[in-house]
Automatic annotation (TrEMBL):
Domain of life: Eukaryota
Any single Gene Ontology cellular-component annotation: cytoplasm
Alphabetized UniProt keyword annotations: Coiled coil, Cytoplasm
Family of the protein in this entry: Belongs to the LZTFL1 family.
Coiled-coil region list: 150-294
Any Pfam family hit: Leu_zip
InterPro entries linked to this entry: LZTFL1 (IPR026157)
Predominant cellular place of this UniProt entry's protein: cytoplasm
Localization of this protein: Cytoplasm
Name this protein carries in UniProt: Leucine zipper transcription factor-like protein 1
Any one biological process term the GO annotation gives: negative regulation of protein localization to cilium
Organism: Exaiptasia diaphana (Tropical sea anemone)
Length: 302
């Protein structure tokens, strides 16, 4: 079943539902335990007075109320922690997320989530496929196509996104080259260690010619290693500078993208469709206020 998210995010939702189901079952066991304790400890006689029954029910109510209140508080706090993780990840990329609290009371969507949970955790969930949920079919505002500045702003947004992607690919290429330089350095270091080991073995045999040859090899390897380190330092400095410039460019493009999106929103608010819709809403609100005022005249006084 699809709830309008990609596969990765949908798996995270399933994991959270599994966590919530476990906590819910633990609280239900606590409530059942409270009833069992009452039956085992208090219900041992055949007859009870009204005061005794009232006392037992009052105590049981306090225990059940505490369990339910604890679960509601814990659920609210865990939801805040989940939102904190999402917002923290968004802030790292300079994003500003918004939450529509009114959607939390949408009974139709809540029923869809309940169906999703029931089907996801049913025995046949692994072998059956269900139709797309209403969540993924929710209507969305279509972009206006009036010509003029709005399409140009949209084109600019697309261009900035393309530039951002190119910069990220360039950073990946630079990181790949840096990894190759480090691999070459390790290879030269291994050759130096091997040459030193051969030199030590030959020195025990007192062979002057081999010793001289090995010393020459070692000097050559040291020289190559020195050159490699110098080249690596230059390349690393160049890579650092290019990466820093690329990151600054990404931040600039992101800021420019945000400004462009704000300008696009401003252009949208100035369109005739938006103004007409706003005027219609204002007229409807005035009519509702007038109807309520008339209705009060016919309501009986209390």
């Amino acid at each position: 079943m699809d709830i309008g998210l990609n596969e990765h995010h949908q798996k995270n939702v399933v994991n959270y539902l599994r966590f919530a189901r476990f906590n819910r079952s633990q609280r239900l066991r606590g409530i059942e335990g409270a009833f069992e304790d009452l039956k085992d400890s208090r219900l041992v006689e055949d007859t009870y007075t009204l005061d005794e029954i009232t006392e037992m029910l009052t105590g049981l109510c306090a225990v059940v109320k505490g369990e339910v209140e604890s679960e509601l508080i814990n659920t609210a706090h865990t939801n805040v922690l989940l939102l904190r993780q999402v917002f923290s990840q968004a802030e790292k990329w300079h994003l500003k997320l918004q939450a529509d609290i009114s959607e939390l009371e949408n009974r139709e969507l809540i029923e869809e989530i309940a169906k999703f949970e029931e089907r996801e955790f049913s025995p046949a969930a692994q072998t059956s496929q269900t139709k797309m949920s209403k969540l993924s079919q929710a209507s969305k505002l279509e972009p206006l196509n009036e010509g003029g500045a709005v399409p140009l702003l949209q084109m600019e947004i697309n261009r900035l996104n393309d530039d951002n992607t190119k910069l990220r690919n360039r950073i990946k290429d630079l990181e790949t080259k840096a990894t190759g330089v480090l691999g070459e350095q390790r290879k030269l270091k291994d050759n130096l260690e091997q040459t030193q080991a051969e030199l030590k073995a030959k020195s025990n045999q007192n062979v002057a010619s081999d010793l001289s040859d090995l010393e020459g090899k070692m000097a050559k390897v040291k020289m190559d290693l020195k050159k490699s380190k110098e080249s690596e330092s230059q390349i690393a400095a160049s890579f650092d500078e290019e990466i820093a410039n690329a990151k600054h460019e990404i931040l600039r493009l992101q800021a420019e993208l945000e400004d462009t999106q704000q300008e696009l929103t401003k252009k949208f608010n100035e369109t005739s469709q938006y103004k007409n819709m706003k005027q219609m809403l204002t007229t409807k609100n005035e009519q509702i206020k007038d109807l309520r005022s008339r209705l009060r005249k016919y309501e009986p006084e209390t």
